Description:
The structure holds two protein chains of two kinds. By secondary structure, chain A is of the alpha+beta class.
Amino acid sequence: MDISVSRIIRPKGMKTVYIDVTINTSDCRIAQIKISGDFFLYPPEALDELEERLRGCNSEDCIYSVVDKFAEKTTAIGLDYNALKTVLAEILGNVCSR
Amino acid sequence: MGEFKIRVIYDLAGRPPWWQMAIDEAILEHVSRGSSLPTLRFYIFSPSSVTIGLFQAVKHTVRIEEAKKRGVPVVRRFTGGGAVYHDEYGELTYSITLPVSGALRDIEKSYEMLCGAIIRGLRRLGVNAEYKRPNDIVVGERKVSGNAQARRREALLQHGTILYDSDLDTMEALLLVPKLKLEHHGAKSIRDRVVNLSEALGRSVDPQAIADAITEGFKETLRADVEEGWYSREEFKLARQLTKKYLDPKWNYKR
C-alpha cells in the first residue's frame, strides 16, 4: 500500500518548502517525492537529481546521506537542508511505525 | 567614463510571458558566450500573466482555474523564487545580465548588489526602499520588488518585478500564499504584504520614468556606461526556439 504525506516547512529566515512524499508501506521505501517552493538552488538541475536519489530510501541513514551529499555540491538560498532531512526522516518514521 | 558598457533595452510595448522568458534566457545564453553585451532590459507582460518560480508546484502556487477563467497565462520561469502576478497596467519587469566577476561571484552578495541598484533607482523617484535578504526590496515592511537570479557558465541574469499600480485584488484572486508564509512576514493577506509605488509615492508614476530611474541606479552601482539598443538577430533566433519550451505544458506543469 502507498501512503502520501504532504508537509510545508518554513524555518525562520528561510523560504517556503513543500514536501509531497509517497511511502510504499510494504517495504517502507520512498516511492515518490516532490520538493517544491520559492527557494533558490544552484545548479538548478540538482533538484531533480536529489528527488531521484531519495526515491528508494528506506531509512533515516539513507535520507541523511543523500541530502548531505547533495548539500556539499549545491548552493541553496532559503532551503534548509537540516529541516528537509529531519522532516523526511520523521515522515518515513511515522508512516513505517504504524 | 564607466568601467564597462551596458546595452539598455526599453521594450515596454508588452509581450506574452513565453516570449519574455525566452528572450531573457536567450540574452543570458549570448552574454555567457560573450556574443552579447551586458544587458539591462525593461519589459511588460501582455496579457497580464503569472510566472512561477523554477522550483514551485503549480498546485501549491496558483489558482489555476481562476487563471484560466480570467485568461491569464501561467508560465514557469528559469529562475527560482516565488509566483508573480504581472499586471499589464501596473507592473514593470527588469532583467540585468552580466558576466560574473569580482563581487558578483558570491551569489548572496550579488543579490544584495543588484538589488542595491534597483533601490538607488527607486530612491531617485522618492521612495524610501530598502533591501530585505535574500531577494526582496521593501518599503516599510511591504514588498515592492521581488528578484530572482539564474547563472549560466560565467554569466548571471537577475530579473525582478516592480509593482507600480498593480491590481492587488486580482493578485489575491490568482496567487495561493500559505498562511505560514504570510505569518512569517507578519501579514494576514497578500494586500498586507505588498505595496505599489503609486501608493508609496502618493502619486501616479509611469513605467518609463521607473525604468529611467533604475537605469541610473545601475549606472552608479556598476560604474557602467549605458547605450540604448535592441535585441540582436541571434538573440531573436534563439528566443524563437526557446518560446516552444515556455509554451509547453510539460515545462510549465513540471512540478
